[in-house]
Amino acid sequence: MCGIIGYIGDRKASEVLISGLSHLEYRGYDSSGVALMKGSDVQIFKAQGKLNNLIEILKDKQDTCSNAHIGIGHIRWATHGLPTTINAHPHTCDCKNLTLVHNGIIENYQELKEELTTLGCHFVSQTDTEVAAHLIAHEYGKTKNLLKAMQSAVKKIKGAFAFCAIHKNEPDRIVVAKRNAPLVIGVGQDENFIASDIPAIIEYTKKAIYLSDGQVGIVKKNSIEIYDENDLVTQNKIENLPFEAIAISKMGYKHFMLKEIHEQSDVVRNVLSGKLLSHDDKIRLEEFKLTPEKIKKIQRVQIVACGTSLHAGMVGKYIIEKYAGIPVDVEPSSEYIYRETIADENTLVIGISQSGETADTITAIKQVKEKNSHIIIITNRADSTMARLADSLLPVSAGIEVSVAATKSYMAQLISLYMLAIYLMEQKGIEKYNDEIVNLKQELIELPNKVEALLENTDNIKQLAKKYSSYKDFIFIARGINFPSALEGALKLKEISYINATGYGAGELKHGPIAMLDENMPVLAILNRGIVYDKVLSNCEEAKARQAKLIGVADYIASKDKDLFDDIVIIPSVSDTLSPALNIIVLQLLAYYIAEYLGKDVDQPRNLAKSVTVE
Ligand code: AGP
Questions:
Q1: Which end of the chain offers a freer environment for a tag, N or C, measured as fewer CB atoms within 10 Å?
Q2: pLDDT digits over 514-539, tens only?
Q3: Quick one: three-class SS letters along 402-446?
Q4: Ligand 1 geometric centre to CA of 308 (Å)
Q5: Catalytic residue among 2, 121, 164, 306
């Protein structure tokens, strides 16, 4: 979380910084700020809340904005200290000569702050970043050289950071540093850019240098110098950025989330393209680097992910265990990293992440890399930190997802996992499910049309949203392969509407949660035809007996059972195995329309960020 940006060249720095920050707003929106440098004059502007507040402030500062061609900027997701203007970046030291923006967390900031306080430093904010600003300034006092000051400061810092620093005595450069937080330098002609992520700079350049952990760099108008962790000059490859400048617009939709929900049929087509050609063809997965012999030796699969990606992984468990016959553990990355995990060269580890920058999952992958397990990364960002750690990279190509609530990336992850499960089965030569798989492949091919059919008329879901928007709590239930759908539906609702929603395995209801049921608790049940249909129906009866309002989401409900429900949403006919891909669209839409009806900030819900780069 947090995004940083830097510019040095001939353009108006303020324009580049603001445009860049607008593309980084998915990383946080608690506050924003820029520092504009002209000669030895540095002006800092900050605003609490959304970027628009900063833009308003800059409107009255046109003189400063027109004259400055060097600057750094920041968009904040608060970690240390309230989301106030005082805590907004950039931060400075006592003499105000050094100015710093930072993404990450400095773990030893308290210790450093105490040391610096005894040396006479005064702190005005509650942030860890201000401590880093004072530390670098203190080191500067020893050498009068910003690069050297940064190099010695980062050796004293524990934790994660991407830094951009400017100094009044060195007005021709921005000094950058990185450890466990993303940083890319956009290479231009007589100008250079720095950003946490490429959408911030893609409209200016298609060439970039990715900094590695431990590297420090000097970015000038006409040159970039990189130093490794031993302070020796090093050369980083200049890479071509992987996507064209895209007009990231809402295309007429009220919110990005709604647009992204509606893009899901194309997302399915994209993921299937080149991998699934026909129902009687084998899955082609050139990205998967293990030979069939090695695949046969896989003893276990471990899936690590967070949030929505974790729910996709939970669906993956059902299909990989069933079709490939390999035991699968799915675990939140944040838990995986703090216990002794058992993995070896016969373990396949799957990291799933929309952003590829989730700190918990990156740490999990780094830990397991030392155990020689084969690592597959399923991500929407082939240019991400996680992608670079992959032995096999499965980019899902859902396209840039702007809304903080993940929708189309979940769909892309699900379909990728279906591909992977079938691929593993086929490479292992398992024949038990051959007929079923032919049907599943045909269904996958037809899925985009079913997604479109579902999205064609959503009036019933809008009506439901209106009806249920006044409830304060919600329960989602399902069993089997749709249990993760219940969890994901509840997550979607709570993150954008702030309604207290929880997903349960329907069979678990009677073991405690049923105590909460009464006429004020709507229960949404997912019941696709399959082995658990009757069981979920019984659980619905139990809920109804406690007067809960009952919503059914299903591809079919027998006439005799319909009266049980207050409301029903019927999805296109689909097998139980593939039903999570359609059920989730109903739940995404329900969450969307409830939040929209309640007037919530759908694309940028409070307290959240799209990319969670802190542990
Ligand atoms: C999704 O709606 C959430 N905002 C969040 O749970 C997200 O899925 C999680 O932070 C993981 O992100 P990643 O997929 O980028 O790793």
A1: C
A2: 999 999 999 999 998 888 999 999 99
A3: CCCCCCHHHHHHHHHHHHHHHHHHHHHCCCCCHHHHHHHHHHHHH
A4: 5
A5: 2
